[in-house]
Design a protein that fits this description.
single chain, 3-stranded antiparallel sheet, hpI Integrase, Chain A, 49% helix, DNA polymerase, domain 1, 15 helices, 10 strands, 4 domains, mainly alpha, 426 residues
């Protein structure tokens, strides 16, 4: 069966309106869902639900595709790794975030099925898995670079999750991907665009893997994009460290002007069925962002411009940042747009995500505690915050150096006085 579901929320409580939505009669409002009964590889019947489809026809076709992919799946006795992985993906989709599902699906399609797909699931051994990773490690990306240790770890995480489910379903007895040793991912720390690095970049094109601007470079960029219609968006990312999906998912109901706070309640992600609002990356990512008066005034001006552009179509549930036609902004578009603006500005290159790193280093340089920065970025652990931002702005380095020198010199003078007093006493 297929049915339409409204995603509108109450402007005050933030809860779904459901049948109370005044736009339910509009045939173009909401998205379509399907529910279908399937038989899993263990012979049990399960009810699967999927949503976010633009039309009833697309939802019906997706339901048929899932039913066909599971049709004829063997019942426990003989099941290949490929059959299990496809079944696992079909039931996992409803439990995980769309971006996680896409990563799982790509790993299955590009690596797991080609190397392990024909092996009987119960015959899969640790030797098979080790051989697969040895082969994958020798491959190169489309940019000609070797597969990174971080990518290998993510592929292993996908395989481990799929096989853990097989163990829970009693389809296999042990998980051969558990405890597998892989090369440790190399953690890349943000590097500041110092004058020497800028000079080397202009001369040879050499650039850090992760780079952040100095305060002067950031202010130069913000001045350059002052007249851009998304200026408030670049400002928020640069100063408050929002992720691109978080800023694309902001709505005006997320802004509390009395408390001067912005609530990160959802994110906008690109899926196979279009743009979809979903919960933030993690529980810690759902957070409140404190705003200063300048940022509030900037958002207020942006709101007035948007109200004039959209007219009666504007509502508190309207996305805070939209395209020229009033539609939601694809996070991928933000990455592309930011890249073009940086090139046009003539500044040393940084990625859009590097603005988030820059916001953290700015906060640290301003004297913010690590706990504050952790909350600002929505990190689950302060260890991640501390490990990532050991490289900070030059001003902080200089202040630390001065403080260290003052401490040593003070102790040295104290020691010298004691020595001199002892000599005079003798």
């Amino acid at each position: 069966m297929v049915y339409r579901r409204c995603g509108c929320a109450d402007a005050v409580t933030g809860k779904r309106l459901g049948n109370r939505c005044a736009r339910l009669a509009d045939p173009a409002h909401g998205s379509w869902y399907f529910a279908v009964q399937v038989t899993d590889v263990s012979g049990r019947r399960q009810r699967l639900r999927r949503g976010g489809f633009p039309t009833a026809g697309v939802a019906r076709q997706a339901a048929r595709d899932i039913a066909q992919s599971l049709e004829g799946a063997p019942v426990t006795g003989y099941c290949t790794v490929a059959q299990w992985l496809r079944y696992w993906l079909s039931v996992a989709e409803q439990r995980i975030r769309p971006t996680t599902y896409k990563a799982y699906r790509d790993h299955v399609r590009l690596f797991l099925v080609p190397y392990l797909g024909l092996i009987p699931l119960r015959g899969l051994s640790r030797r098979h898995v080790v051989r697969m990773f040895s082969s994958v490690a020798q491959r190169h990306t489309r940019y000609g670079k070797p597969i990174s240790a971080a990518t290998l770890e993510r592929i292993r995480a996908t395989l481990r999750a799929a096989l853990n489910e097989a163990v829970r379903e009693d389809v296999m007895h042990d998980n051969p991907a558990r405890g597998l040793r892989l090369p440790s991912p190399r953690h890349v720390h943000p590097m500041v665009w110092t004058p020497r690095r800028v000079a080397a970049w202009r001369r040879t094109g050499e650039r850090p893997a992760v780079a952040v601007w100095t305060i002067e470079q950031l202010t130069e960029f913000l001045a350059f994009v002052r007249d851009d219609r998304l200026f408030a968006l670049w400002w928020l990312i640069a100063l408050r460290g929002l992720r691109r999906a978080e800023v694309a998912g902001l709505r005006w109901i997320d802004l509390d002007t009395d408390r001067r706070e912005l609530t990160i309640a959802c994110q906008l992600v690109h899926t196979d069925h279009g743009l979809l609002l979903c919960p933030p990356k993690s529980a810690s990512s759902q957070r409140g962002i404190a705003l200063d008066l300048d940022t509030l005034r900037l958002l207020y001006r942006h709101e007035q411009v948007q109200r004039d552009e959209l007219g009666i179509d504007w509502s508190p549930s309207t996305p805070m940042f939209t395209r020229e036609n009033g539609g939601a902004i694809d996070p991928n578009y933000l990455t592309h747009r930011f890249h073009k603006l940086v090139m046009a500005s003539g500044l040393p290159p940084v990625r859009l995500h590097d603005l988030r790193h820059g916001a953290a280093t700015l906060a640290l340089a301003a004297g913010a505690d690590l706990r504050v920065v952790q909350g600002l970025l929505g990190h689950a652990s302060i260890v991640l915050t501390a490990d990532t931002y050991t490289s900070v702005l030059p001003q902080l380095y200089r202040e630390s150096a001065r403080a260290t020198a003052r401490l040593v010199l003070k102790a040295a003078r104290k020691t010298a006085r004691k020595v001199n007093n002892a000599r005079r006493g003798t």
